[in-house]
Amino acid sequence: MxxxxxxxxxxxxxxxxxxxxxxxxxxxVGPDVTIGADVEIGHHCVLEGRVELGPGVKVGHGSILGxxxxxxKFKEGTPSGVRIGAKTVIREYVTIHRxxxxxxxxxxxxxxLLMAMSHIAHDCTVGDGAIIINYAGITGHCEIGERATxxxxxxxxxFTRVGAYAYVGGVSKVNADVPPYMLVAGNxxxxxxxxxxxxxxxxxxxxxxxxxxxAYSLLYRSGLTPQRALERIQSELPPLPPxxxxxxxxxxxxxxxxxxxxxxxxxxxxxxxxxESERV
Length: 280
Known about the structure:
The chain is of the alpha/beta class. It has a domain at about 1-140: UDP N-Acetylglucosamine Acyltransferase, domain 1 (3 Solenoid). It has four helices and 27 strands. The protein starts with 9 loop residues before the first strand and ends in a 29-residue tail after the last helix.
């Protein structure tokens, strides 16, 4: 390991580091850090507190992992940490703060991409394959589902959920839960359709995408309340696995969900609304 650590890096001897890990110039690795095989840590990085990096993680220059949470109720010395899944890429100057509660973890899944200058706050959970674009701010206790995308310069309010495969357009304010598979944008973020492009890339069959579009129509185009729309989705549409995930998410929404576009309002953000019926 010694040959792969830059001579100006400060690595605590108590840190558990797999052979072959590279640590760049002027980086600091604390005593409670665990680093898996083939991890690359850039220059001027700081890993403090309990930080666990899975195999193949890449940490860009200037990133800070495991810093104290920006939360007034946090008590200094609380043993908590940050866990990063295998092959996740963390680009330059990303900050990820540790959890507020004892033995708690801020978690980022496998194969994620956290672009430069983005922030993941304390007690968040980011699912496998999620993408957080430049300057996005994920505040405390948020949940970002697998393969969801959060656009650049977007702010997500505390305790908010973004469902799996959802796409949040750039420069958005997310103050309510974003259901899985939805395309949302704006201030506040509103739903513009199903994330058809993302679902195609994920290999979802056409039949399943069409059912999700039918669910979107009931949820956002029927004029029904979310609860009544949920009841009709459950009673009228085939119980395919993606629909079951959507229903479970809607049933568990405690902060409300993103609403429909306001009549006469501009689209905003960086999304192009999908047609109500997918083109084949």
